[in-house]
Amino acid sequence: MHQGNSSRVAAFFDLDKTVIAKSSMLAFSRPFFQEGLINRRAVLKSAYAQFVFMQGGADSDQIERMRTHITALCEGWDVEQVRSIVEEALHDIVDPLVYKEATQLIAEHRGKGHDIVVVSASGHEIVAPIADMLGATHCLATRMVVVDGRYTGEVDFYCYAKNKAVAIKQLAEANGYRLEECYAYSDSATDQSMLAAVGHPTAVNPDRELKKIATQLDWPVLTFSNPISLRARISTPSGTAVAATAIGLGAVAAVGFAWYGLRRHRGRGELDTSG
């Protein structure tokens, strides 16, 4: 990400359905499956877990079992390989999903000298390159435990729900942001704490519960509906790079499924960040 400046105001953006039109992790599922790097049963199991999480239909025991399964998917993957794959595949896969309205809003904040911070429950190795692509100053994301350059399958910090607010407050203290003057944008009621942490919260494409909360608290509501490609402003990878990307895309998808599966549900109380 770009280095921080003297700005003491930041705009915090949730990623999925706020800046991009769908899950940053699911965006990798098609090439992952097409390359045969995971079997159909594993893909369907991950997809079912995500469906249950997003629909809110799992109890705490089911969520814990699913969480254990999907975090284990990334066990043993080489961190540098994942980073390399994400960098190479990023523009082809994620670039067309970015909301035009989000890029305009980010540009407005940057024009005012505000720092841009992407905040996501997805994994850091996935979120950081997307944040770079968006011109963000920082990113806050879930971090997996790494030993000898490989993921252990455990979670070091789960950047979800109230933990997002914790991370935002820590970053604000480190960078001197005045939170009462900062901005935050999200689509999900699970991010109520994140939105409430700043002086200028806004609901973007809110789910039903967040829409109700926004109405009660008189928070502004925005609708982003026009994903466009930023390709004209970003160089396109060569055919060779794209072909090389396809060979190892399974690593991204496996880690992606694990991280995205953590995203929506882990109970509504304080979250365990020890993995």
CATH superfamily label: HAD superfamily/HAD-like
Indicate the radius of gyration in whole angstroms.
18 Å
Average pLDDT taken over every residue: 76
Instruction: Just give the CATH class.
Output: Alpha Beta
Order of helices and strands: EHHHHHEHEEHEHEHEHH
Tell me about the largest β-sheet.
Answer: 7 strands, mixed
Name the beta content range. 15-25%
Just name the CATH architecture: 3-Layer(aba) Sandwich
Per the CATH scheme, the topology name is Rossmann fold
Shape: globular
Could you describe the 3D structure shown?
- The chain is an alpha/beta fold and 275 residues long.
- It has one domain (10-261): HAD superfamily/HAD-like (Rossmann fold).
- The chain contains 11 helices and 7 strands.
- A 7-stranded mixed beta sheet has the order 4-3-2-1-5-6-7.
- The longest helix is centred in the first third of the chain and has 16 residues, at 40-55.
- The two termini are 26 Å apart.
- The model is unreliable at 56-60 and 232-275 (pLDDT under 50).
List keywords for this structure.
single chain, 275 residues, alpha/beta, Rossmann fold, 7-stranded mixed sheet, 11 helices, 7 strands, 16% strand, globular
Walk me through the topology.
Elements lengths: L9 E5 L14 H6 L5 H16 L4 H13 L6 H15 L6 H12 L3 E9 H10 L4 E10 L2 E8 L4 H14 L7 E4 L5 H5 L3 E5 L3 H10 L3 E2 L16 H9 L1 H13 L14
Parallel strand pairs: 1-2, 1-5, 2-3, 5-6, 6-7
Antiparallel strand pairs: 3-4
Helix pairs in contact: 2-11, 3-11, 4-6, 4-10, 4-11
